[in-house]
Hints:
mainly alpha
Amino acid sequence: MSKVSEFNTRIAAKITSAVGTMWCAYIFAAIALISLPAALKTGDPIVIVAWVAQTFLQLVLLSIIMVGQDVSSKAVEQKINETHEASLGEFELAKEARLIAHQELAELKKIASEMHRVLKDIEGGKN
């Protein structure tokens, strides 16, 4: 990544984190409200609707949506981390179960071998 790209990325991240706060939404609402009296004074419904849609909603909702996305992404990240931890726990349990099964199989092979030897001894004593 070039120096310019790194710089642009850092600036974008700082601006995004600043704009994506409720404090920024409050500041944008205050800025938008400054022009409300002028829009109302015109008495023109188109100007008033334009103020609501283009000035207030766009400014304020931008920050609120960013805050909501941040909250959502943190919740998803938490679920991912919890799932990862649970998966690691289950993996460890599976490893332990496999080890126990391997030990039990070795014991069964030993018992089978001893039984085979005993049966040979019994058959050898009959002859």
